[in-house]
Amino acid sequence: MVTFWGGKRKTLVTAQLHYLFMSSTWILPDDLAVPDFPADHPGPGAPVPQHWSKCFGCGDDQPTGLGMEFTTGEGLEVIGRFEVAKRYQGGPGFIHGGILMTAFDEAQGMACNAALRSAVVTAHLGIDFARPIPLGAVLELRSRVEGTVRRKVYTRSEARIVDGPLADPDVVVGSSYGLFIVVGHEHFEKGKDFVDGMPTGDQDISAV
Ligand SMILES: CCCCCCCC(=O)SCCNC(=O)CCNC(=O)[C@H](O)C(C)(C)COP(=O)(O)OP(=O)(O)OC[C@H]1O[C@@H](n2cnc3c(N)ncnc32)[C@H](O)[C@@H]1OP(=O)(O)O
């Protein structure tokens, strides 16, 4: 339809389509199963431990990483927070898009882990960048498992600036949908010769 019009008008139509499609459609499968609520769930506001101390997203022994910290939210939601450090700059003054993607990856992986108590890896991740996010902003990412099909775990997450520059907890500045796959310890066996660091606790499910 767009190429049929051509010329100046083509540019106009393309721009309008771009605007319409700013928020991606994520179609969930019909046979989605909602996971059972874990019997030992601590309730909202409990800290969710890092899964691996050297993880770039959540590890406390990874000085160049995001240092995300997580708590449980309502239901199966987990809430992750981090401050956009100056070293995460992309365009002048704003976060690099890949950093936001990393944060969404981590946040949705943690939601899988909290809901299923299983190790997962990311198979597919989609993002809508809705607003520029300034350096110094404190981002809150709320993430949840929407359901599972066999080993496939479908997740969703939204980010808001809750403190610092341009803070407005009512505005979604980015959102993400993901497909994670439940894996066994054999997945991480393949990396055992390359591990940097030692597991520091029971929560280090990704370390061998
Ligand atoms: C607490 C944890 C927080 C962690 C946060 C950070 C997470 C990460 O960043 S992990 C690092 C990035 N990801 C990776 O390195 C994964 C690399 N990929 C792989 O190892 C493999 O492709 C893996 C494990 C995902 C799937 O392989 P395998 O185990 O053989 O499963 P496979 O049989 O191919 O697929 C299982 C199902 O998933 C589907 N699937 C797999 N990949 C995809 C994909 N990219 N898109 C859509 N569907 C997919 C398959 O179609 C299949 O579906 P179905 O059940 O309907 O037949």
Q: How many helical elements?
A: 4
What is the percentage of strand-forming residues? Answer: 25-35%
> What is the helix/strand order?
HHEEEHEEEEH
Distance between the termini: 53 Å
Whole-number count of domains: 1
Instruction: Name the CATH class.
Output: Alpha Beta
Radius of gyration: 19 Å
- Which molecules are bound besides the chains? octanoyl-coenzyme A
The biggest beta sheet is recorded as: 7 strands, antiparallel
CATH superfamily: Hotdog Thioesterase
Q: In which order are the strands of the major sheet placed?
A: 1-2-3-5-6-7-4
Average pLDDT figure: 87
| Broad structural category | alpha+beta
Identify low-pLDDT runs.
1-21
Please tally the β strands and state the result: 7
Taken from the alpha-carbon principal axes, the silhouette is globular
According to CATH, the fold-level topology is Thiol Ester Dehydrase, Chain A
CATH structural architecture:
Roll
Proportion in helices: 10-25%
